[in-house]
Amino acid sequence: MLGRNIGIDLGTTSVIIYTQGKGVVLDEPSAVAYKTQTRRLCAVGQKAFDMLERNPDSLRVVQPLRDGVVSDFTATRQMLTRYLTKVCSNSIFKPNVVVCMPSGVTNLEKRTVLDIVTAAGAGRACLMEEPLAAALGAGVDTAAATGTLVVDIGGGTTDIAVITQGSIAVSSSIKVAGNAFDEAIIRQVRRERDVIIGHKTAERIKTTIGCAVLPEAELFLTVKGKNYISNLPATLEVSSTDCFLAMREQIEAISEAVRSLLEITPPELVGDIASNGIVLTGGGAMLLRMSDAIQNKTGIKTRLAENPRTCVARGIGKALGNLELLVEQGYIFKNREEITGFYET
Ligand SMILES: Nc1ncnc2c1ncn2[C@@H]1O[C@H](COP(=O)(O)OP(=O)(O)OP(=O)(O)O)[C@@H](O)[C@H]1O
Ligand SMILES: [Mg+2]
Q1: Is the fold of 5-130+311-344 the same as that of 133-176+250-309?
Q2: For residue 250, what are the contacts with CB-CB under 8 A and spacing of at least 6?
């Protein structure tokens, strides 16, 4: 195939692009800003994200993906067009793109992504399951005849899958991940302290003092918000235990989903997982001691992959290095004209 080979991790929180030969070339938030009156695009990526929750009425900021799937078709296309132009500006041919999606998405959702990617400038596009790419990026030998359990905790979804012999044996996906932790912190602070905080502040609490198990040493962070009753500015100190207690239900939901997947995994593969361990990828997995929480629940050794946020993009990169193998395994690259037939496949 002519044209450059590109991998896109189209995530709820961020878009990460990998180009063959160069590695990760773009890592930007999934966000688009418009002028409210004219609906004209005025910023994409980090610049748009910086405006979020601080925008005046004249600007509208959109996060075009929700729970791992496209919720705003036009905004996603406009965002990807910008990003593809940025990474392929000096290329004559349109790129071949492999894009990742959470496991368990519907055929319509798959078709929508292919449609958008080709409308945004890809010559041919192909979908890959997110957990498979995550495993490749985490350095798992996915082709081996042994099973490994991968848990990709992103912003919108947690994808859990058992990988063996180059494909997924069993998988599940839940809509509880990094963003759900932030929401839980916002709810707790409002309920217990009568203070409303924004999503960015909640994320800062989570990444600075958050812990997935009851913390041994207490850490504190002072943040600002507004009083729920008086609507006046408020300053409050949050402890790591407060933060853990706020997120406990969501952490439990993820650990329980991992345990449930083990229940439906064939016994031989469970035996392999017991010796190979569980691998965590995705930004959400960077929550302090998330691996301990899952290890405590399952009794299986759990490790956090290196550079967990970019595992999916780097995993697609590895697959791009051997496109023939990808095609042999049944991955089909489609151009715009061929995509209409996607319903039948
Ligand atoms: N150090 C950290 N500790 C805890 N959480 C973190 C940390 N760094 C990033 N995150 C969280 O990781 C999440 C984003 O992860 P990632 O970029 O893998 O998501 P995504 O791929 O865009 O989403 P999805 O895969 O669900 O579509 C955010 O919720 C962010 O707050
Ligand atoms: Mg992701």
Answers
A1: yes
A2: 176, 180, 181, 184
pLDDT tens for 126-178 read 999 999 999 999 999 988 899 999 999 999 999 999 999 988 999 999 999 99
Question: In the structure, which protein residues have their CB atom closer than 6 angstroms to any atom of ligand 1?
Answer: 9, 11-14, 68, 154-157, 177-179, 203, 206-207, 282-284, 286-287, 309
Scan for tokens 């319903």, then name that residue: 343
Domain 133-176+250-309 has CATH 1.20.1090.10: no
d(CA 55, CA 78): 20
Cα torsion for 282, 287, 289, 292, to the nearest 10°?
A: -50
* Model confidence, pTM: 0.94
Ligand nearest to the CA of 283: 1
* Cβ count near 264 (within 10 Å): 10
Q: How far is the CA of 159 from the centre of ligand 1 (A)?
A: 13
**DSSP assignment, residue 108?**
H
Enter the tokens of residue 295: 């290890």
- Residue 78's contacts (CB-CB under 8 Å, 6 or more residues apart) are 32, 41, 44
The neighbouring-strand residues paired with 16 are 9, 27
Distance CA 194, CA 173 (A): 34
pLDDT at 217 over 50: yes
Q: Where are the alpha helices (DSSP H) in the chain?
A: 46-51, 73-87, 107-119, 130-137, 178-193, 199-209, 240-263, 267-276, 290-298, 311-320, 323-328, 336-339
The domain made up of 5-130+311-344 has a fold known as Nucleotidyltransferase; domain 5 (3.30.420)
